[in-house]
User: Fold these one by one.
Assistant:
Number 1:
Amino acid sequence: MRCLKCKENAVIELRQHNASYCRTHFLSYFTNRVRQNIEHRRMFAPDDRILVAVSGGKDSLALWDVLLGLGFNASGLHLHLGIGEYSNLSLEKTRHFASSRGAELIEVNLAKEYGMGVTELSSKTGRVPCSACGQSKRYLFNKVALDRGFSVLATGHNLDDEAATLLGNVLSWQTQALARQSPVLPRTRPTLVKKVKPLYTLTERETALYCLLKRIDYVEDECPNALGAKSLLFKEVLNRLEENMPGVKQSFVKLFLKRIQPLLKSEQDVDVRDCAVCGQPTTREICAFCSLWQKALSGGVAYNASSGAQIEDRRID
Amino acid sequence: MKVVIRNPRRAEVELKGPMTVGEILAALRLSPESHLVIRNDEVLTRDIRVEDNEQVEILSAISGGSA
């Protein structure tokens, strides 16, 4: 198979675009797609300070690499979530990348700063690990971005992530979640940082290839907690469809954003207020993160988010 | 040919060559939409023929969680 641009040997065939590319032209195509997404969706401008949520996986490292290559002021944020060796390896890969690029990396260790990692948090609260993990990540991404004065938070969500989430939300008609599913979530309140997904049109296979070609060393294994996750099943189903209907994942997400999501906007008009404990935005009196940690720590220590992330040695009740 | 599957669990499989990359993935029931096939540091498209005495690696691009 030959490159569409130069007729050299291709390294990838993109049936959804009826194209194949060599190494050089694939990297150029990938970077241009990210740039187009940023510009088209007005994600951020050259003078913005961008915080990239970096897990050590292929997507977030590819995103960080592209943003740095495009000259954006992009720092990394890595959360050590306390998921055994998987988290240690993830931190190691993230540090190695940051050091090789001379980029600023902010680290937050859940166990050190809050008293326990995701595994223990999950067992103490009875929440499934992915739920406790996702809750903690969403909260801490926003908090760190706010505390450190970043204007935008960028995550490495790719087309497969977006299509799988969309399928899951459609299957159970989660209209509020559907209304919020977007490559750009604007800053609607002073305490809510703008969130963007510059890779939302690129597949996982493309981000993996980008990392291989750029020799970016990333964590290849899945999170051990994700084994059996519904999102993996949805991705598998969508890829089966894609094999027979090239471009279906892209049209599924793009047409949703164009035709359906605008109709759901009114669903977003919910009563948002500041959390009584930490001050971050919530629809309840106490936000889900503070509730989760209060429950986890109610066995002997209290959670005090108002002074940052401190654990006091006293009972809540 | 020797096929090394890198992730999510490392495994080695012997297949009778020659086969194209597309045929290798089909024989192993792996989706071409979520896997990359590598030979000697070179990423191969599905039409490339792999000889019986050669070795390839298969990398799954699927991830379901984050660290």
Number 2:
Amino acid sequence: MDGSSLKSAQLLELMRQHLATDAGKELTKKVGLVYQLNIAPKKIGVDEEIFVVDLKKGEVTKGPYQGKPDATFSFTDNDFIGIATGKTNPQIAFIRGAIKIKGSINAAQKFTPDIFPKPAKL
Amino acid sequence: MALRHLVTGQNNCTPDGASSSNPLNALANAFLGQSSKAQSIKELPGSVSVPSTSDFSTPAPISNIPGAENEFKQDQRPLARGADFIRGGPANDWIESFRPPGVPQLGVEAQFRDFEQIYNNTGTTFQPPLDGPPQRVLSGVLHSFLTSGPAGVPFQPLPVPAALGLSESDKQCIRDRSCIMARHIFSDQPEEYIQAQVNTLLHSLDIDNRMRGPMHGHYPELQEYWNQSQSSMGPAPMHNAADKWITEFDKQNNNPENWANSFEQQYGPNGWASEFEQHQSQMAMGPMGGANMGNLAAMEQSRMLAQTLASNNDPKFQNSKFFQFVSKMSRGELIIEDNQVKEGSASQSSGWADEFQTQYNANANSWADQFEHEELSHGADKWVSEFSSQHNQGALNENWVDEFSKLNVTDEWAEEFSGGGFGESSADPWVDEFQEHMSSFKQSSGTSRGVYVFSENNPYVGHPNPMQEGQELFRKGLLSEAVLALEAEVLKNPDNAEGWRLLGVTHAENDDDQQAIAAMMRALEANPTNLEILLALGVSHTNELEQGEALRYLSRWLQNHPKYGGLVPPQSTDSPYGPDVVRLFNEAAQMSPEDADVHIVLGVLYNLSREYDKAIASFKTALQLKPQDYSLWNKLGATQANSIQSADAILAYQQALDLKPNYVRAWANMGISYANQGLYEDSIRYYVRAVAMNPKADNAWQYLRISLSNASRADMIAACDARNLDALQKEFPL
């Protein structure tokens, strides 16, 4: 996650650490899916950075997934932050064209705000 | 008569300027006291060079009300404004749309003459002639009704010749739409007043108002939503409400074409959409030129989209509803949405907003600003809300997309569209084009940040010393009250850096970083080198995960420090490099290890670079120097929480809350810590406490909702969505 100027990278770093906690382990048990996130600074598909949120192993890594993720999301930095913090409804974001999804729709539907830890504020 | 009231009534309402007992006028005066924009507009050549035909000697109080300014100018120069007026605002078009069937549409020239006649004939009385063709009578009456809004004087019943020849459906239409319009015109007035006004109007026109009430007849669904939006304090649930709304909307519009058709019926195929556009262009060339450029650009963009779509030769596509829809949108609807999306990114002036709404608005005539403004304070009075129950700011630009996606689900293109959304089949140029357009919306909504949104009906406006009051309230920990008092102060003294700064601090403690940033930016304008302001901006941007911005402000902190400024190399620091800044601060810390502030900034910087252990060490050092600083305890706690030491974090938050029991941010952070540990039931109690203290804490509401769903308390989600504090506090006492 280092070296990325995306806001999402900060959230994903928090996610990475979160997955090591008891609550995080609970989450991997509950979800058990692998998501690949293609996050673009401004426009979907342009200058994307790729992250993998592996809720099978409980890892967050940078770079494409080796293998086939259960679902791949493409969105912009702001939209991902919006979804992860509960500001944006993923379904509406999808209808709006703010998310592109590849892969299993069932897996995609488990990608909800509550799997992400929330950043505390200074 | 109504226009006469516009002049004299204003004077009566404001006998002595800003200290008026009329809060609306006081507010407007306070706004305009600081609004250099409004003043410069008057000085622009376009408006000055026009010869005044008016002998009124009291233009000042009128031009103090932005909405009224237009009205007045119309009277001042009937010739110059007449044409604008005819083609002008949607409000006027609204009047025109009541043209009874059978009355032939007069050409623009003819209408022009009509109005010229009206204004010339009536001379000083300004009473629209109430004879002649029914259309003109109707226009006159409705126009009086409209002007009574900005004027702040009750609409006076006008004697109208009995036979207007209105059909039942016309009456129905007038009845319904005057109700809606009245809400906008009198949006500052109580419900009874609005109804009384509408009744007066309807009575004047001899329309039976049996179906009295907020909305009538065939809009029961809208009425329901209207009421909902009135009762809920703010953003309603995206999820449920959206679904519900869609269902209801669908019910009403079971034929997907209905919506579009009725739109066309009401406004004509080239209805007010194009008039609105025209008006916008005129406005852009007129006095408001500069301010309007942003809006024009947006329109240009939507026109380009329409053109791109039109250039597709595929006849199937040309006939598709999507295309028709987009072109329609690009002419009118989309522009409005555009305004909305571009909340305040420039002070765009929209025609009808000018007509009757600007009295609330501080330095922007922007419709969007207005919307956001209302949104935050007492739900939405705007017509957009009549269509939507999604109040979330982030979701504003989704409304029409929802409508449109739902409306057209049965259509072929919708499948294409979702296909494009799903897979890689977005090869069709229009899909890309469309998405590009959408993302440009999002970007512009991102730039809407930084515009301060004032509360409405602020009881402290007119207070003799709001600054002192605000400081007192802040000290007592009554943060939401302090916000109001300080807003009154900065309305009164827009250059009071300390007022803005304290307002920003209060928002930050109230867990609203966006408002905090907006206030701090104003503070920084007034005092560009204040260290506290720079630090506060650095912290708030850090919270919003905006690293670059945060780093810039923190670097400026060092630059402007009397003692450490010399450490900074003279080159510009437009995009400082994190490690460099950290190094400089470490040097500063070596210079004076007793300076708690340096350690605080270092702690924030290490948060940015996610070196949480170092951040924690810095904050702890600072706390040894400043153990009573509750915000420092909260910073320590938040850093610990973000490095997954939630148990420690809770101890630190507790220290902060012992020192400042009403520290909303710390309560919300407590909730976050419990939620991140999977202790959702506990987190709910803290979130509820936070939102109870600041019902505008949107983040906390969102997190509360997530925790409710995680804790399998779906039964309380409705209460959360309705922002029903009583129910939540009862269910989850702390």
